[in-house]
């Protein structure tokens, strides 16, 4: 293809064995006066793929290069020393044997109550208190095991890890030149990770503080807040409660508060214009170039609605975001 | 070619560098290794100093609150009120299984035995000290747990997967006592005979400890028969009654050898007998009575907070103090100077109060140890009078008091506000106030700054003193039937406290023995172990909320709750008694439950982790 396309592909699978752990079944008398050191017992692995590709092209007077890269890396716990479980549920829920790490467990949200009648006739004990704390707009959870109540046995894997880098990362870079104009753009993005809303991002008036604007603007509420008989106006978020983190809407990790993340952002962007040489030589300059470059100009992601940015990890959203910069500049070469 | 030769040279120099042993074998700069320590006696001393310091202790001046766990004191500290609300002592209370420390001591002994760079006499002394510390730890263990596995060498697991060969069963309780006595006998010759050395083992200390150890073993043998269920079939708990006399004889012999050696004498430096008694504990200059102490030093980092934590609030040098309040239970136990017991009378026969112009008059003509142990209303500390009074008592019986130190209110018939409570309280539920009406004096430092957090105190903690040895001798002699001798030893201690009418042979009873230790050794960490070995603990702390005994000289009177006694100023303008003091006996508001010491408390719980790790370990009795 005339060397227009170049690229690499790497596959890796790193296994580690002999990770330190205790042998729980060797009981040494306390009277020896020291505890045993850990032994080399456990194992884990990280496997993944990295690939990149570049294409150089030309259309008329436009020369351009387009490149992309992608990496996928996922950690798996392999074996621990003689794993033991109390029962099959314990095994299912708490085992890490031969499983990906960081799997996010929680409740599956299957909708919101639409009316008082629906709550009154709802067969499943949704809040653990016979639904007496439920209002229209409150979250309904899936009774996975069908026992008529929502409890810890209804937790299932609902998402990718939230506390680490995205499993899938990718980037796109483009550069173009047309006559005296040049342009460069870098996009980066990630996928296969979760953002969990909690604390300030979940509970209205958390710690008697403030609440998210979105919670206020689009919520279930009565037409007249002073009239208990007025109609319920539907909204996106549940009705506001004051700093009530113990309520079933808020005390459970659920798919309602979890965002399965994908994002792509324009990391850097630059356009430039170089003055014609004839003009610059008159001023005894070799080159004059005007440019505008930006850093983090925009991102396409699912957290815009919450006002936080996709590359933060803190569940309360109180993390300092990345800066957005716009620079104007002139390059002069003498 | 030149390029290659340079590269070759570089490689060679690297290889040469790596072969250099001195390069890789670096001496650590942040720790000392065995070969360094065992070549220098001052380094060995620092190792053994650490071991001395870590011998477990229950009640001591660095953990004041434990003195409020029994009946000697009330804890005037918001975080410790729970001590007076517990319904019963947990079985795990007072337990100890610190075989990590024993391992370290065993390693010390092992390494000391093979050290070849120390002077033989120095080495022998270190070895003896190591064995003394080990015996001391086993004494602490046997007091708490009964017989324990006797581990005399550091054990190491070989990673074979089968650690069962490391399992050692509990020894009999009597075997542990015999082991301690044997060790003490064997190491004595290697220790210095000096009464100047106080914080290391000496020959005097060996005798002192031996008298205590034998006395404990003897009394467990003798009084264990009163609690037949507090035994285990294999003898891990309980000592055969037949052995009692032998141990009493050993206890008496050891105590008498020490007393007769003349190396130590009772502290008599001050004319005022109360001051003399309190000085005994804080005078570190040529103190003839102290035998073995845990020492402290200002500006060294090793200071103790007793004075800071317990200083009277009215003259506190920092924002705390007043925590340990001696109980009326203890305060009323001090005899009158005519050797009789008398509880404090607050009212006359006709029901009217007894009025005192000076609140201290209430406590006049008592055993001098009372004011040497306790700060009373009207007492002085650091040259200043305490301000303990709870409020005004009006003629109609109304009480006017405040809810903070030195609170002010306007009395009826007056226009200006005035103080209605002392700057030391007592005020119920107000921490640091004298909620029982008393503050503690024993071990209270008189040095300026001792009540400041940034300074604190270097007063030492006396672990053994001659006063106790006299009482050990008296008790052993009494139990052996030699009441005359018991009276002599007891009178020596009493005479120093101003009780100059000697007790006669006929006066010496078990009650007297128990009582004398109670008043002489209050706040010295003896009470729990004494009550356990006499098998009195489950009787006096029986969980019943009874009133304060009117018979403080009786050994088995119930004392499950701590009581107090508060002075009030009498307010009756124009009346004869206006401005005088009256007293009311009270129970502090935070005392809501009675102590219950169950039969299972005599030997503390050996927890399930220990028993799982070594199935040969049997459980202590009465804890199902």
Describe this structure as you would to a colleague.
- The complex is a heterodimer of chains A (334) and B (624).
- Chain A has 334 residues and is mainly β.
- In chain A, 7% of the residues lie in helices and 42% in strands.
- Chain A is built from four helices and 16 strands.
- In chain A, strands 1, 2, 3, 4, 9, 10, 13, 14, 15 and 16 form a ten-stranded antiparallel β-sheet that branches. A two-stranded antiparallel sheet of chain A has the order 5-8.
- The longest helix of chain A is centred in the N-terminal third of the chain and has 7 residues, at 88-94.
- The model of chain A has no long low-confidence stretch (mean pLDDT 94).
- Chain B has four domains: 37-57 and 97-156 and 170-191, Serine Threonine Protein Phosphatase 5, Tetratricopeptide repeat, CATH 1.25.40; 194-295 and 464-521, Tetratricopeptide repeat domain (Serine Threonine Protein Phosphatase 5, Tetratricopeptide repeat, Alpha Horseshoe), CATH 1.25.40; 321-442 and 544-593, no CATH class; 594-624, no CATH class.
- Chain B is 34% helix and 8% strand.
- In chain B, strands 8-7-13-14 form a four-stranded mixed β-sheet, with no helix packed on it.
- The termini of chain B are far apart.
- In chain B, helix 6 packs antiparallel against helix 7, helix 8 (203-223) runs antiparallel to helix 9 (244-261) and helix 14 (466-479) packs antiparallel against helix 16.
- Chain B has helices at residues 2-19, 21-24, 34-37, 41-53, 99-114, 120-145, 173-187, 203-223, 244-261, 273-282, 306-310, 328-331, 369-373, 466-479, 483-496, 510-520, 527-533, 537-540, 608-613; strands spanning 73-75, 290-294, 324-326, 374-375, 380-381, 384-385, 392-394, 399-400, 408-410, 417-419, 439-440, 461-465, 564-571, 581-586.
- With 624 residues, chain B is of the alpha+beta class.
- The chains are: A mainly beta (334), B alpha+beta (624).
- Chains A and B meet through loops of A and helix 5 and helix 19 of B.
């Amino acid at each position: 293809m005339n060397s227009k396309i170049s690229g690499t592909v790497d596959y890796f699978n790193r296994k580690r064995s002999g990770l330190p752990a205790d042998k729980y079944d060797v009981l040494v008398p306390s009277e020896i006066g020291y505890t045993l050191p850990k032994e080399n017992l456990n194992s884990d692995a990280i496997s993944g793929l990295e690939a990149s590709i570049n294409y150089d092209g030309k259309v008329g007077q436009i020369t351009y290069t387009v490149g992309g890269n992608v990496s996928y890396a996922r950690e798996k716990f392999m074996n621990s020393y003689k794993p033991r479980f109390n029962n099959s549920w314990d095994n299912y829920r708490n085992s890490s044997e031969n499983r990906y790490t960081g799997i996010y467990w929680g409740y599956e949200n299957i909708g919101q109550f639409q009316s008082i009648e629906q709550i009154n006739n709802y067969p499943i004990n949704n809040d653990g208190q016979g639904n007496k704390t439920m209002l229209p707009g409150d979250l309904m959870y899936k009774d996975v095991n069908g026992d008529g109540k929502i409890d810890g046995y209804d937790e299932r894997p609902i998402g990718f890890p939230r506390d680490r880098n995205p499993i899938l990362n990718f980037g796109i870079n483009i550069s173009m030149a047309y006559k005296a104009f040049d342009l460069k753009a870098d996009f980066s993005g990630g996928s296969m990770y979760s953002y969990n809303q909690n604390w300030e991002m979940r509970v209205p008036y958390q710690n008697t503080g403030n609440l998210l604007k979105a919670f206020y603007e689009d919520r279930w509420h009565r037409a007249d807040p002073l009239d208990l008989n007025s109609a319920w106006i539907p909204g996106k978020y549940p009705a506001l409660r004051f700093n009530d983190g113990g309520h079933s809407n808020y005390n459970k990790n659920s798919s309602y508060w979890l965002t399965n993340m994908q994002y792509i952002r324009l990391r850097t962007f630059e356009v430039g214009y170089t003055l014609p040489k004839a003009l610059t030589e008159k001023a005894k300059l070799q080159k004059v170039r005007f440019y505008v470059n930006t850093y983090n100009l925009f991102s396409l992601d699912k957290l815009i609605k919450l006002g936080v940015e996709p590359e933060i990890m803190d569940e309360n959203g109180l993390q300092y975001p990345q800066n957005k910069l716009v620079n104007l500049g002139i390059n002069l070469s003498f | 070619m030149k390029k290659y030769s340079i590269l070759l040279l570089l490689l060679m120099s690297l290889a040469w560098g790596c072969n250099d042993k001195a390069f890789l074998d670096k001496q650590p700069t942040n720790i000392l290794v065995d070969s360094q320590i065992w070549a220098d006696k001052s380094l060995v001393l620092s190792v053994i100093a650490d071991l001395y310091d870590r011998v477990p202790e229950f009640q001591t001046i660095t953990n004041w609150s434990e003195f409020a766990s029994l009946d000697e004191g009330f804890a005037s500290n918001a975080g410790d009120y729970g001590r007076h609300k517990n319904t019963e002592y947990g079985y795990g209370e007072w337990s100890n299984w610190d075989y990590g420390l024993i391992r370290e001591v065993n390693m010390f002994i092992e390494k000391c035995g093979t050290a070849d760079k120390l002077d033989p006499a120095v080495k022998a002394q270190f070895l003896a000290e190591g064995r003394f510390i080990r015996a001391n730890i086993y004494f602490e263990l046997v007091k708490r747990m009964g017989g324990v596995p006797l581990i005399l060498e550091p054990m190491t697991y070989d990673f074979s997967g089968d650690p069962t060969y490391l399992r050692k069963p509990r020894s009999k309780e009597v075997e542990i006592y015999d082991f301690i006595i044997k060790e003490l006998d064997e190491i004595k010759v290697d220790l210095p005979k000096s009464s100047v050395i106080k914080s290391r083992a000496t020959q005097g200390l060996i005798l002192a400890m031996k008298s205590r150890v034998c006395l404990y073993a003897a009394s467990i043998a003798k009084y264990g028969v009163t609690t037949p269920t507090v035994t285990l079939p294999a003898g891990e708990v309980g000592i055969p009654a037949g052995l009692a006399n032998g141990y009493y004889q050993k206890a008496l012999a050891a105590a008498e050898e020490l007393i007769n050696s003349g190396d130590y004498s009772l502290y008599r430096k001050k004319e005022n007998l109360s001051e003399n008694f309190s000085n005994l504990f804080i005078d570190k200059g040529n103190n003839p009575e102290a035998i073995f102490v845990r020492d402290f030093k200002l500006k060294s980092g090793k200071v103790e907070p007793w004075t800071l934590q317990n200083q009277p609030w009215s003259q506190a040098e920092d924002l705390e103090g007043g925590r340990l309040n001696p109980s009326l239970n203890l305060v009323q136990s001090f005899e009158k100077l005519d050797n009789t017991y008398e509880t404090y009378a607050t009212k006359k026969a006709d029901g009217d109060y007894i009025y005192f112009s000076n609140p201290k008059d209430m406590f006049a003509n008592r055993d001098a140890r009372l004011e040497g142990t306790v700060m009373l209303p009207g007492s002085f500390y650091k040259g200043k009078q305490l301000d303990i009074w709870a409020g005004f008592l009006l003629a109609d019986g109304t009480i006017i008091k405040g809810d903070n130190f030195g609170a002010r209110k306007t009395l009826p018939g007056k226009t200006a506000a005035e103080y209605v409570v002392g700057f030391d309280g007592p005020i119920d539920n107000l921490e640091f106030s004298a909620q029982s009406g008393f503050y503690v004096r024993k071990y209270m430092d008189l040095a300026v700054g001792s009540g400041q957090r940034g300074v604190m105190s270097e007063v030492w903690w006396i672990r053994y003193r001659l006063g106790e040895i006299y009482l050990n001798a008296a008790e052993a002699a009494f139990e052996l039937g030699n009441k005359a001798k018991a009276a002599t030893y007891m009178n020596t201690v009493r005479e120093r406290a101003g009780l100059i009418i000697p007790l006669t042979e006929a006066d010496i009873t078990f009650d007297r023995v128990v009582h004398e230790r109670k008043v002489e050794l209050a706040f010295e960490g003896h009470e729990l172990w004494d009550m356990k070995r006499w098998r009195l603990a489950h009787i006096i702390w029986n969980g019943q909320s009874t009133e304060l005994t009117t018979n403080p000289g009786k050994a088995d009177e119930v004392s499950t709750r701590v009581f107090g006694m508060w002075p009030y100023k009498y307010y009756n303008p124009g009346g004869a008694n206006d401005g005088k003091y009256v007293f009311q006996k009270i129970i502090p508001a935070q005392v809501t439950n009675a102590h219950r010491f169950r039969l299972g408390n005599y030997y503390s719980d050996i927890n399930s982790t220990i028993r799982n790790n070594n199935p040969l370990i049997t459980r202590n009795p009465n804890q199902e």
